[in-house]
């Protein structure tokens, strides 16, 4: 049986490319996005939502639709070497390419269009949103649940900025976004090349950095 799903809105995100996006929501608190609802949705559609701290956001992994899917994938948490079933992972390469993120709801503006501002996001710019639901702690918080191969939060990198790095124009929020994003170690799980210079586009900047062991060094920050 086939069903038709229509997007209800679009994400405006500081992440302009897949490389550098946190692999799970909540890992980069400084990553704020705006979910702009389609004009067919008025303020009535979000009435009462402001009383909740978090929302579930269902979306489409639009940037990988043409890449298809596989029943077995290599989770980064396992070093990219061990295969797991796609339904045991959060890989974007899924049969229906549907994603789910739990985001902190910061505020709502009820003009036209209606906009929801959320933080801790792991969403690519222009991601189509297909549903929004409130997070209900007493039924959805299971702190003692088994977490499989992803039971604990991954260790973050220590991030420093090169002394002559031209980042004086950055706001504190932009600086935090860049540092927190790189701290998640965006490299492919199998890659460990200390001399390699990585390039990441975030917000309106192009950021270059290197990683040696558990230490990341930000080299340059320039307008993209």
Automatic annotation (TrEMBL):
Keyword DNA repair: no
Residue span(s) of domain TsaA-like: 5-144
Classification via InterPro entries: TrmO-like_N, TrmO_C, UPF0066_cons_site, YaeB-like, YaeB-like_sf, YaeB_N_sf
CDD domains xref list: UPF0066 (cd09281)
Superkingdom of the source species: Bacteria
SUPFAM superfamilies with a match to the protein in the record: YaeB-like (SSF118196)
Name of the protein in question: tRNA (N6-threonylcarbamoyladenosine(37)-N6)-methyltransferase TrmO
Source organism (scientific name): Neisseria dumasiana
Organism lineage: Bacteria, Pseudomonadati, Pseudomonadota, Betaproteobacteria, Neisseriales
